[in-house]
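Protocol step 4 of 6: structure prediction from sequence.
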Amino acid sequence: MKTPDENECTWQSMTSAKLHVTVVSAKDLRAADRGGKSDPYICVTVGPGGHETPYYTHKTRTIKKTLSPEFNESFDYMLDPKQRRGVLSIEVFDEDKYSTDESLGKVEIPMHTIQPLEQYDVWHALVADDDEHASEDLGEVHLSYKLEPKLPPALLQIEIRRAKDLIAADSGGTSDPYVRVHIADEVKRGQKTSVKKKDLNPEWMETFEIDIRSEQRRDILTVECFDYDAVSADDSLGKFTIALDDLEPAREYEEWR
């Protein structure tokens, strides 16, 4: 499978991606108010790290008077290749009506540690953003997140060479085989070889080019052999499937299936 002008690159290195983050909950937070509670909310940022301006910032609603808030709020971030080298930062704050909101702890996750397509569901220990509370147990935050690369279109070149030992579907002990290939359920957009009459070991040597859209890059390629019938429906003689995301760009495969 080839990607335009970038055959030697991996899919991940040359594409943007969507980061989906769900702030589920937190527990055992530090009490910042006199009543032994806090009014927590969580700020989610994606940026270069440190004190530089973040690329994106979102925050959850505030949950009043609790040390174990439930949020269940989700955010999506579209990241270009540069942004994918940044940091996902989760910081818990205590909302204060009359003064500056106080940090209750934070988590920083380098983006390069997030494996594409892996679903994370993790409790992260909060660490202090200042020296005053550095030695304290600040509780944990529960996060769910996943990085989904936005893959570019690709061109799949497939050559149907031959088959052997096919099923005899006709009364004369032979078949009239041809092969159809298609992506996902797009059967009508599939491509077919010529029909080889009365042959259980046909040879085609026919090549097809299939344009694969970005959203199809994780779909299934179906290769199915049929017995042609001029009167009734064609009989399937067998099929196999190939997961497109198992194919490495620019690599040539040659195999029997």
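Step 5 (inspection) to follow. The longest strand covers residues 16-27.
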